[in-house]
């Protein structure tokens, strides 16, 4: 079987399995094959001590799951799926928040559980992990900011610890500020401070307020 044909088969098989499973826990040959691969890859990752190397290895592994994920998202009806949720988290881990979003939309639409090993809900994991990545990257990236804006919208009504949401607002403030959108940045910094006074935005608020006053002029 050629590589292209194999990829097509994986996607179609995953879609069929997801469609047949409905909202029961995911099963079928396509799932079991990917789940076995996930366990193997997880063991490989556990054997690596370097965080940098773990991230590099995840980048190498993720393409192997692409067709399975595409098939599930195409035809899925909300089956609990450990493979799908792990791929979402790995994409965030490697800084590919854009790539995690299609899975996040699906997971939140159907209220999928992240798994027993996690002590946070799916919305909380998505908000915190994405915010942590954005704060670590410190990049002026329009795609990253757009992804954070969508994550805030997707998780806005979810219950989560205040420090998690505070980090998300801080990351949003940084993104708007990097884009030069100071009037949009300020409310996010202020909300982050309201939620957690140790989130580290007091200086950011002062700088943004000072810049806005200078922009508005002495007679404003």
Automatic annotation (TrEMBL):
Positions of TPR repeats: 166-199
Protein's recorded name: Phage terminase small subunit
Entries under PROSITE patterns matching the protein: TPR
SMART domains according to UniProt: TPR (SM00028)
Signal peptide from the UniProt entry: none
Keywords on record: TPR repeat
Coiled-coil ranges per UniProt: none
Pfam families linked to this entry: Phage_term_smal
Annotated segments matching region Disordered: 1-23
Comp. bias (Basic residues): 1-10
Domain of life: Bacteria
